[in-house]
Specification:
single chain, 274 residues, alpha/beta, Rossmann fold, 46% helix, 19% strand, Methyltransf_11, Methyltransferase type 11 domain-containing protein, SAM-dependent_MTases_sf, S-adenosylmethionine-dependent methyltransferase activity
Length: 274
């Protein structure tokens, strides 16, 4: 297996993500693409919680296709089909996968399990559909939402009104919908109980990067409106890519490059064991 601690990025994931998504999504997702690019995914692959398919379309571009994907949101599934990276997509819950036992060699679940109220059930399902010696690759945040809020509100309290802070708090709680915020030891325990062994884990996303994500989350509302109306976050992608993307890439490069080993999120690779 490749060196999974490698940090090189020859594919410019940050600029590619910024061309299609707001900063609040692009910065952290680009880091995840960079890390997962060193994982030797092998078909057949399942993407649990594929969303609109943007993450997979950027990560797997020029590499391979993904055999199957699931998401609970019918609208997101419709967007995913248009990305052209999946052979099949089903509307389904992660806790009840519509696939036979031992169907996949890899299961990908990017930023999914923290949003599920019963991650143990979803882990059991991932184990069920994986072949013997198959791998589950997923990412999770490790900070509780309250800590995120305290960091940011302390930062802006001297310059912002209480109304602005209240709006920010509502924004984060309603948009990110984090239900299962666990530490690495807790995820390791859950994985072991579900029949997995952790073979690699890696922290990423410095506290500074997380604060940037929180600050720019205001723009997710605007991007979400565009996405509902026209199916994408960016209304004029060609102009955005030529003018806005180079500027935001330059501004965010130091945060992107500071991919701290003491970061606030985890990439976990776990192997199915008998």
């Amino acid at each position: 297996m490749k060196d999974l601690n490698e940090k090189t990025d020859n594919k410019n994931f940050l600029a590619r993500y910024l061309a299609s998504a707001p900063v609040a999504l692009a910065l952290i997702r680009a880091m995840e693409c960079r890390l997962m690019d060193h994982i030797p995914f092998a078909n057949p692959i399942l993407d649990m919680g594929c969303g609109d398919g943007l993450f997979a379309s950027i990560l797997f571009k020029g590499k391979t296709y993904i055999d199957c994907a699931i998401d609970r949101d019918e609208t997101e599934v419709d967007h995913s089909y248009k990305k052209g990276v999946y052979r099949d997509i089903k509307i389904a819950e992660a806790e009840d996968l519509p696939f036979d036992d031992e169907s996949f060699r890899y299961v990908l679940a990017n930023d999914l399990f923290a949003h599920i109220k019963t991650p143990r059930v979803a882990l059991n399902e991932a184990w069920r559909v994986l072949r013997p010696d198959g791998y589950l690759c997923f990412t999770v945040p490790t900070l509780v939402p309250r800590f995120h809020l305290n960091v940011f509100t302390d930062f802006i309290s001297g310059a912002a009104s209480q109304n602005l802070i209240s709006l920010f708090n509502h924004n984060i709680k309603s948009y990110f919908r984090l239900n299962s915020m666990l530490k690495l030891q807790q995820w390791t325990k859950l994985l072991k109980e579900s029949g997995f062994r952790v073979v690699h884990h890696r922290k990423y996303a410095s506290l500074s990067a997380i604060c940037i994500q929180m600050i720019t989350s205001f723009y997710l509302y605007r991007g979400s409106i565009y996405k509902k109306a026209i199916g994408r976050y960016i209304p004029f992608p060609e102009i955005h890519e030529k003018i806005i993307t180079p500027i935001t890439s330059w501004v965010l490069k130091s945060f992107y490059d500071d991919d701290s080993y003491d970061g606030e999120n985890y990439l976990i690779l776990a192997k199915k064991i008998d």
